[in-house]
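Changelog note: in this version the structure field was regenerated for every chain. One regenerated record is shown below for reference.
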Amino acid sequence: MNRLLFLAIIVLVGGLVASLSLFNDQLANAGSTKKIQFTQTVTSTQDPGIGHNNEQMAIVLPPNSGSIYHGSITYSSSQPVQVVVLHQINKDDSKGQPTWTVDGNTLYAITTIDSNSSGGSLDFTGSAIGLHSTNSSQFAATVSVDGWIRVTTPIVTQPATIVSSIENSTIKIPKSTILVQIPMHEGMVNGKTVYYIITDSSNNLVASTISDKQNWTVQVSPVLAHVPVTSYGNIFIFTNGITGNGTRGYQDDVLSFTPTDKQYSPLNKVIEVSWNVGRGPFILNSTKTILDANMTGKVKLTVTDTILNTPEVIWDGGALDVRASKVLSDKTSYLDGQVLGVSVDNMTATFLGHRGWGPDGKTVYYIITAGTPQGPAQTMKILDVPSLSLLGMSARDVYHFTNGLQGAGPFGYQEGISSAQPGDSAYSPICKISIINWNDPKNAKVLENKNDIDYEKSTGDITIQEAIALDKNYILDCPIVNP
């Protein structure tokens, strides 16, 4: 393939990208930045690069002199592919690094991400990005791009009309649901055994310590340190005494309540229990026995500022509902339960992980363990936990769509967007649900971040309102997890 054919490909892809609303204003000044957002199917052709005649390439974002792309790409391909990012360089700067060129004059350093996968998501920065196969078989791929183009030279790009071109008004994104296997902990409530998970901590050091011990990431949520005192119970963690499987390596932790108690909350404040010299130790298996031991001087209690998110999975007389169907797809419903399996032998609980977008457009996955009010909770077969209604001011906003582009969201439309994610000071495992309605569904397009929401709201294309059921806010315990 010669250079003219390569240029024809670029023109074709460039025209396609323009029609998918890469720009909504004219880029007339050096250093300007504009949004890129589209979903489209691309088909590969013979790689035009010198020395790549027997390979296939599908250009997603074509080279554009003086411009840099950055953002995220999600793709699903008919066969395993590599993601390639090109970086335009001077010939004198190559110095032995891997390069790609069509004519031997314009040179690109090439970054190859060889995931050997037919789908995935990643962030990128470069002069161009494409999908590549090292064999000669043609492939097709559906790609979603959310990012920006920064023009570093005073080249004028003509304005384009904002158009959403999603086939059949449907958005399909790879891995809209995944399996999330989380280690369980064994504890006690009123002398009975319970099994629970730990997903979040208000204290960074505690989060790190538990993450290392259980080999699964506990997210940091500073917001939890300020939740109302009536919204949590207590978890008693032993700092010495009888060696065991507790959080600190001693006897099992003791929790205040189970979901059968009306005071139950997935949130618990950490109270440290230390045996005084010469006064024990022996097993304490309830809040009452611990308080009695404290009153008689056997143990010392230290109330910390740490709040943990510790949803219970199995308790005396009950357990979270397990889904009947274990098959996952982009049509997997939110309605049939959020747990796919529990193994006491392996001390793991497997949850359904739902895909969404963080406030900056990055992919996040979250699980759902409990909710309120009763109606929506029963619909999703999760625990109805009234105490969650006290946490509206301590929750992150999660936006779900009630019309527009069909997808894997809870109402059958595109996936939701979270106002905060781990690493943000405002991140909380508790979610307050708001709903987005397209005033004219014909104007619907993919929204992938908080800025997208704010822009569409400012234009009057969408209406946002808090989800209300039975005159109460719709609140979930839906921690973002690291799969």
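Spot check on this record: The radius of gyration is 26 Å. The chain is about 10% helix and 40% strand.
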